[in-house]
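Quick board copy: two proteins, each given as sequence then tokens.
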Amino acid sequence: MKLDDDIALALRLADAAGAAIRPHFRTVMVPERKDDATPVTLADRAAEEVMRAILKAERPDDPVIGEEFGATNGSSGRSWVLDPIDGTAGFLAGRPLFGTLIALVVEGWPVLGVIDQPILGERWLGVSGRPTTLNGQPVRTRACRTLADATLATTGPHYFDDHDGGHFMGLAAKTDHKRMVMGGDCYNYAMLATGQLDLVCEAGLKLHDWAALVPVVEGAGGVMADWNGDPLHAASSGHVIALGDPARMDDVVAALACGH
């Protein structure tokens, strides 16, 4: 399968998901609660269903892993990983900082990723070996001279348990914590890839939360890893860091290790 064909398909998936999501934005919606107590809406399900329908028709041998409807079987060794609305709480609050995440994972490693913000009309595309683009224009992360200069972002402190929260605060104390950003979900990673943030740190993420982010961040000159600094793959624990300047990786890992 040609990578360009996969890219074209991923962009059509994003188009279809956006068309399913936009009519529901800033409407009165009553979310349901999943088993983990996180909210899910009609928009989440509609967007994933339309993407799955396209993949079933065009890539029947590729497994699909989605947040809302789980995993399907396939024999190709290539998986499509979908998060129709990453940031459902923000979506419900009428904040256009959520995103549709689409990834192609080959033998456990993300090789293609899309972050699509269908309300603002912003789409980041990351492909292994190619520069990341925002609406077709290349973007780059920014340099960060020291960890003390870094602007750190995370979705929220309530996503860390006590143990992980202590390590996160150890990192936060080493950064420019007066500019720390809370909230934003996948949009934080898009902003890091565009040179607006330096560092994102989170725990408890699942494959559908982060797979699309890796090609976007790394194609823009950044790096993503687990809290030990090791590359992310399908078996990773869900402890995730994203750095705009890879030179700060050792500093970040050391700061996380010193937290308690």
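And the next:
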Amino acid sequence: MLVVLLVVCVFLLAWANGANDNFKGVATLYGSATTTFRTALVWATGATLAGSLVSVAFASKLVSAFRGKGLVPDEFLGVGLLVAVAGAGALTILLATMLGMPTSTTHALTGALVGAGVAAAGASGVGWGPLATKFAQPLLLSPLLSIALTALLYSVFRFGRQRLRVEKETCVCIGERGERKLVPLGALAMSTAGAGSATSPVSVVGGTPPFELGVGQASECVERYSGRVFGIRAQGAVDFFHYLSAGAVCFARAVNDTPKIAALLFGVVALGSSLTTPALGAVALAMAAGGWFHSRKVAETMSKHITVLNTGQGLTANLMTAFLVLGASRMGVPVSTTHVSCGAIFGIGLVNGKREWRTIGKIGATWLTTLPLGFALGFGLYCLT
């Protein structure tokens, strides 16, 4: 019965992980109005499945890390402890997802591991040294590193764009009459230099009557790039690489997260090594399903309530997120994709000066409570098993 319960908890954890994490890689695509929510979700799901399929070869070191080796004495690494860890991790992430807050699977699992470990072996039986070096340091440093490097990279990119004379364009939207919020059907494009001039030339790009023309808040405008670089249209090139970078983030996240979740199944002797690939595949499908059906709330928070993004800023954030997460996976370091991706978006907000402190505060509070909540649930569930 414990083995069956473990399998159920692991797949619930994978579902919760997908619901909270799958959209994070494509949040900048949706937030910058590069594409629709549905298209971004399809792209995220495909890239996540691809990353999960290669995760066992690309990030196998993470499997042993999240089985509890080194954190809890071997004699306590039984099915009961794994049930407590998987169940506590799943409940922690599901709660954050219901609130629309991005949280860290790594944080939730780490808290659950420590809580279950203390319940099983006592505080003295937990390997606090490995916990600090292998888990705590990467989790604390990764968002700070992501903020700093993203802000630096975007400053470099912005300088290069200006040197290449690629200018920003702003636009206002045309919407259907009778709607409370304008529904984007097209745009009136004006160069930045001409904005505010009554005689600025405008051109309608799409839209069918009856419609209304309205000017909203600056945060509702869509920024695009004009000009060419080496004969290539600047906006087209940015969009192309933006899609690639978003896919890379989803791929990297799946590479980093799938082994963490599957590691809980690998701890069951009955599975055996011959079922490693099927177990990873089942976890990957559960992650994809969770993201497909329950990612909307977190998607809105990540995409539109941290900072205002244009396509170039979104591309920059994704490049840095993919670089840091793939690098950590290659080294077997369990960083949080949530912390890295949110840190990258925070870094953009520092540079462009458009930060939503209220949302950032809520996300920070979620991060602070994830570890103790995972600990408490892990401790309690182990006592029940």
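Board note added afterward: The first helix runs from residue 2 to 21.
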